[in-house]
Design a protein that fits this description.
alpha+beta; 4-stranded parallel beta sheet; 32 strands; about 40% helix; binds ligand ANZ; binds zinc ion
Length: about 950
């Protein structure tokens, strides 16, 4: 009965203790950050969330990682800023208003309130006073202010452009929002439409954005994606005069060295020259059809997806600027009007696309580069040779025999001399189209006046607020329905004018929120320069890989642009980026169709092919219905359990699978850990030899933990603190350790490490061990280091542990051949000469020299003179030592290198060994120095003594 009572009191009850700690953290202001400190600063940040009503597991994982880093940095003496806010503009709230009625602002704010409660229940250590919400007028007014500054400097401009138009969302989409011809949000087919739009000249920063990728610590994958998106190409601009015309065709090529292989030119079908060339000819009709078809397709499809590469001869010829050769001019559906000059010099022998085109239309294929020097060119190549090569067949002097870069330079030089071309760098990066024909975003602060044209809203009139008198009908831009918004006087002439109704892409909001966090309540400025400079840049940024291109490029651009406005002096916003892996969970899967289906299909045949469905791990998503609600899990197990599970399931960058079982086992682990301080503080033993081991082990664990945390190997870190250290304490107790003083020291060092994933439980520990104040505000004062002798103690103990394992399995075997239980054990450790062989072998191995040298060294040893030993050395070396040298793990190698005295270690713990193995006596000697019991002496090997039971 009594036992049950104490159990009751000690039961782990996170449901009540966690909210209590959260309240204490809040009232004590533990996580408030200030820009004045003796400590070095550390800016920890996760990508701020879009406030859908519920926190999902992806959020939980993201924040569990960030919070672990923030708490670690705080505990190790940094002045940490760790803010959060909401990316609260955007289409979902507006679409909800259209579908269900209501106002996007009300919907958004209700969502923010709900998700805030859920986030707070997790106990993340945010400085909530810095909360930024994009839809807050005190935030978006600065978007408008920056826009006006950009406009004045020509960084923002208006242009007519063919844009991707989604008719179902009635909005313009950025190229990256078009996924294989379809809208990224609603999957409707995307059309091309000509419209007047607002752009930002991000292209001015292309080189800067490329260069600075070298100074930041982004995952290689993200770096490559960014490079790809920027798409720098070095090459040349080459002009081809048109026969019987004063016009020329400008082409961009990365391969000027193929100039003499040009056998036709290809224009984008919408290139303005096409009309001029083809007009009135028999080809005009066909060209018009091709143009219409092409214009309706997205650049993405034309560039990459197009299987059917087609063209139309325009009936005219151009002249090669160097050779004067006559080449036909085509329009081709795969040439992008928006890239380079919208025209290509086609070289079928050296470009696969041109090759296929030439084959289709029977155009000459002319080889002008060979793979090997002096090689003959093939008469009829079967495919394009696209590598660098040696120039051949040049109709002009001085080119044949040139290779690669030298060939390119030579061609460019003669083009320049002829006035027909020049070297040029081309980028894939396009100006950033920021106009959206939607309501729920930052209004673009300009006014259209009949007589003055585009007039910027005076800065003193900012912010341009979103009006309330709008209807959300689902068609067109709701802002157009607001008279109060649209009808204004021109700020310049006073005449009746019309306000711009485009709003900004929400990627504008996420391009500088991290700067706003540094000075979030500033009402006079976007942020104060000194404050931003103090906190920036973000030292650790954590978010999803899906933002590798757009958000991370835009934010980098915006940071540089604001720097150039003189607002701060930071070059890059994010120093180190971590992209967390997906959270997966099982979903039905049809193998033959390759289809992942909604969980409602579980156990049923495939709706498409009728085969039975299997299950596979897939990203948790609403569309598959395989989500797990964080709320429900927290309710049941507490926040610490969910957080521990999240960090322990996989390293942060790896994908992880949701597992109810693993969650439950994390919960059981926390129950065990929760009970631990009580039992440790009740220890009643005195000082013992094993205390030295326990404290050395603690020092070792702390270093391992620090290294794991510095590398953000959070799985390793919690493995140490929540699992390994628990088994260390188990071993300590098994070895007779029970010193309450050791217990107190353990708890004091351990709790700060526990808190990075289970901060509430760690506070319980801290309080139980009688510490004053909150653990969350505690800075670890002990240094991370080992003491003299620690390593020897640790190796000896490890040796003992592995010996016990070994002895247990020998005992199992012995039992089979004995009547009754063994009562005595005789251990014979390997003689010195065997240890010397092992040491010598390891030394040679570590030196990187051939292992054969080791055997040579053995022949200079004094034991080599002993006939009996020499007879054994050769055989032992080949049969056992050589393979073993490659099997020993690092700590086993350290045991051998340290000259650990096996016999002394075992003899010193004879009592313990007997107790563990149920023996009444143990004797230990070095093989050859005592009676050879059971004939085991010759088997004695370093770290594997001969063991006999009697
Ligand atoms: C002649 C040539 C010969 C080419 C050769 C390649 C190989 P990147 O690297 O992506 O910049 N090109 C130029 N403008 C184009 C457009 N608007 N639409 C489609 N293709 C275009 O690619 C540059 C190369 O792509 C250019 O070099 C051009 O073909 C083609 F053996 O010129 B090349
Ligand atoms: Zn759409």
């Amino acid at each position: 009965m009594q036992r049950a009572d104490t159990m009751e009191i000690d039961t782990y009850q996170p449901g009540s203790s966690e909210p209590e700690w959260q309240a204490r953290w809040e009232t004590s202001g533990t996580f408030a950050s200030h820009a004045v400190s003796q400590k070095p600063k550390f800016y920890c940040l996760e990508m701020y969330p879009y406030p859908s009503g519920k926190m999902h597991m992806g959020h939980v994982r993201n924040y569990s990682i960030g919070d672990a880093v923030a708490r670690y940095k705080r505990a190790t003496g940094f002045n940490v800023i760790y803010p959060i806010g909401f990316d609260s503009f955007g289409m979902p709230a507006e679409n909800a208003a259209i579908a269900q009625g209501g106002h996007p602002r009300d919907i958004t704010e209700a969502n923010i309130a709900a998700i805030t409660t859920q986030i707070k229940r997790m106990g993340f250590s945010y400085d909530w006073a810095r909360e930024v919400k994009s839809h807050d007028e005190d935030y978006y007014r600065w978007n408008q202010w920056f826009f006006l500054e950009f406009l004045e400097r020509g960084l923002a401009y208006r242009d007519h452009a063919p844009v991707n138009w989604c008719d179902s969302c009635t909005t313009v989409l950025a190229n990256e929002q078009v996924k294989s011809g379809r809208c990224w949000r609603c999957s409707a087919e995307v059309e091309q439409k000509d419209m007047s739009q607002w752009f930002l000249r991000i292209t001015d920063y292309a080189q800067d954005l490329l260069d600075d990728l070298e100074v930041i610590d982004f995952p290689e994958k993200v770096r490559l994606l960014q490079q790809d998106w920027l798409g720098r190409s070095e090459g040349a601009l080459i002009e081809f005069p048109i026969e019987e015309s004063i016009s020329t065709i400008e082409t961009f090529t990365t391969r000027p060295d193929t100039i003499f292989g040009v056998t036709f030119l290809t224009l984008a079908p919408e290139h303005p020259l096409c009309e001029e060339l083809v007009s009135g000819s028999e080809h005009e009709e066909e060209w018009r059809r091709l143009r219409e078809e092409s214009v309706a397709m997205s650049d993405f499809d034309r560039g990459q997806m197009l299987k059917d590469k087609r063209g139309v001869f325009l009936g005219r010829y151009a002249l090669n600027p160097l050779s004067g050769e006559r080449v036909p001019i085509y329009a081709g559906n795969f040439v992008l009007y928006g890239y380079g000059t919208g025209a290509v010099m086609a070289v079928p022998a050296h470009d696969q696309r041109d090759f296929e085109f030439a084959k289709r239309y029977g155009i000459t294929i002319m080889t002008v580069l060979t793979r090997n020097e002096g090689e003959d060119s093939p008469d009829e190549p079967s495919a394009a040779f696209t590598d660098h090569g040696w120039m051949v067949n040049s109709p002009c002097e001085g080119f044949d025999g040139l290779y690669g870069p030298a060939a390119i330079t030579a061609v460019i030089d003669s083009l320049e001399a002829a006035g027909s071309g020049q070297a040029m760098v081309q980028w894939k990066l396009r100006p950033w189209l920021i106009s959206r024909q939607r309501y729920w975003g930052t209004p673009i602060p300009v006014i259209h006046c009949e007589s003055c044209g585009v007039v910027p809203v005076p800065q003193s009139d900012l912010p341009v607020l979103l009006p309330d008198d709008v209807t959300f009908s689902g068609h067109g831009n709701p802002l157009e329905s607001s008279k109060s918004f649209c009808d204004v006087d021109c700020p310049s002439c006073g005449a009746a004018a019309r306000r711009e109704t485009d709003t900004m892409d929400t990627f504008v909001d996420s391009s500088w929120y991290f700067l706003r966090y540094t000075d979030a309540s500033n009402v006079d400025a976007c942020f104060e320069r000194e404050t931003a400079d103090y906190w920036m840049n973000v030292d650790f940024y954590c978010g999803g890989i899906e933002h590798a291109q757009m958000h991370l490029i835009y934010a980098r651009f915006w940071t540089k642009a604001l720097r150039d406005l003189g607002l701060h002096s930071i070059d890059e916003p994010f120093q180190r980026l971590l992209c967390q892996g997906m959270v997966n969970s099982p979903a039905p899967f049809c193998e033959p169709c390759g289809l992942t289906l909604h969980v409602e299909h579980r156990g049923q045949p495939c709706p498409t092919c009728g085969e039975p469905l299997g299950m596979r791990s897939a990203k948790m998503s609403k569309s598959l219905g395989n989500t797990v609600s964080p709320e429900a899990m927290v309710e049941r197990y507490g926040a610490d359990t969910v957080r521990l599970f999240m960090l322990f399931a996989a390293q942060p960058e790896a994908e992880m699978d949701w597992s109810d079982k693993a969650l439950e086992s994390a919960w059981r682990q926390l129950n065990t850990l929760h009970a631990l301080p009580g039992s440790m503080l009740a220890w009643e033993g005195g000082a013992a030899d094993i205390d030295g081991w326990m404290l050395a082990r603690l020092r070792q664990r702390r270093i391992e933990w620090r290294d794991a945390m510095d590398a953000v190997n959070l799985r390793t870190a919690v493995q140490i603190t929540h699992y390994d250290m628990l088994s260390d304490v188990g071993w300590y107790q098994r070895r007779g350790g029970a010193d309450p003083e050791v217990g107190r020291r353990l708890l004091g060092s351990w709790a700060p490490m526990l808190q990075i994933s289970t901060p509430h439980l760690a506070e319980d520990w801290w309080a139980m061990s009688g510490r004053e104040g909150l653990l969350a505000g505690h800075v670890i004062s002990e240094d991370f280091g080992m003491e003299d002798g620690d390593e020897a103690i640790l190796l000896e103990e490890q040796y003992l542990r592995s010996f016990l394992e070994q002895a247990r399995s020998v005992r199992e075997m012995a039992l089979r051949h004995m009547d009754g239980e063994p009562s005595e054990m005789v251990v014979q450790t390997a003689p010195d000469w065997k240890h010397d062989m092992a040491r010598t072998g390891l030394e040679v191995q570590a030196s990187g020299e051939s292992i054969k040298t080791a055997f040579g060294l053995l022949q200079s040893r004094s034991y080599w003179d002993d006939d009996e030993i020499r007879a054994q050395v050769g055989d032992l070396w080949k049969r056992k030592m050589l393979p073993q040298l490659f099997r020993w793990n690092p700590s086993q190698k350290a045991m051998i290198a340290s000259g650990l005295d096996e016999a002394t270690v075992l003899a010193g713990s004879a009592g313990f060994i007997c107790a563990e193995l149920g023996l009444s006596a143990l004797s230990v000697h070095v093989a050859g120095e005592g009676e050879d019991v059971g004939g085991k002496a010759r088997f004695a090997f370093p770290l594997e003594p001969g063991v006999a039971f009697i």
